[in-house]
Amino acid sequence: MGTLDFSxxxxxxxxxxxxxxxxxxxxxxQFRFGRIASAANGxxxxxxxxxxxxxxxxxxxxIIISDLVMAPINGLLFxxxxxxxxxxxxxxxxxxxxxxxxxxxxxNSARDLGTTEFMAKPFSAASVYRHLLxxxxxxxxxxxxxxxxxxxxxxxxxxxxKATERRKNDEKEVTVVYSADKVVxxxxxxxxxxxxxxxxxxxxxxxxxxxxxxxxxxxxxxxxEQQLQRAALDFSTWALEYLAKLSELCTQALAEKAxxxxxxxxxxxxxxxxxxxxxxxxxxxxxxxxKMLYDTTLEGCPExxxxxxxxxxxxxxxxxVLREKISGDGGKIGRxxxxxxxxxxxxRRPAADAP
Length: 355
What we know:
Shape: globular
Structural class: alpha/beta
Number of helices: 12
Number of domains: 3
Radius of gyration: 22 Å
Distance between the termini: 54 Å
Largest sheet: 5 strands, parallel
CATH topology of the largest domain: Rossmann fold
Order of helices and strands: EHEHEHEHEHEEEEHHHHHHH
CATH class of the largest domain: Alpha Beta
Number of strands: 9
């Protein structure tokens, strides 16, 4: 075993939350990545990669870490562009999708569009490092059919694979390609191509002579976790700003009863951010309450005055967590706060929805 040297590798971060973008960037600096670039959304990311492609291969990032929920172009649309556009400088670039909405539908959509890995928020320094090691050490072969282009959606020799095998079992019936110079779709629905390329990322990271999996450097990870703890000092300020935005949306919704849907859509997006960030910075109750609010305000949710009051109850609960600096599960106080929020939600839930 041995450790990899990331100093010759580059990472491109795409996230519309400046606080999270900065936090991940600082983590990658702790991991000693040589070059780190960032963009605030999918639109900026596409323009960045277009320019990088024109400047030459050395300017194209080795790995992308992208948030999923962004505007005007989200992570899924950005991934589709990276995998299919002629202007994409590397259609096989390792792509790590990052999201607080790690629900099955989102994970499946990202998988079907060709993501390499899916990393859920909240995250830790160790989980970020492990996902990076995964794409560097164990790159997936690329599969091309008339309907799909992207990394193999399951790893070969996956012992946990229990679904019915629908692939052709005999590799003599597929075309194995060892070069990425020409990437085009097969013309026949029955045609399948496997792209098996040299693991250049591991070579760049000095892992050519490492046998077995690379080890996680304990000292480096400890420094990275300390970096996250320092970032947590600013979390309350960031979270309170989001809660203030939620309160303002509640005020607007009460004043504009005829056009509440856009307000609830924005509430849902802010809830997703809080759901994804709290646990990362030592406030798992913020993630729990954020998920509750996210689930409560999904498309088709009630939009009456009681629904607005339910949003307010979530805001009050999260403010209490921040005010009292309730870390972990909060013990007795955390349980009482959770019970109080659940009671507030149940008391205002429409009778038809009540259990």
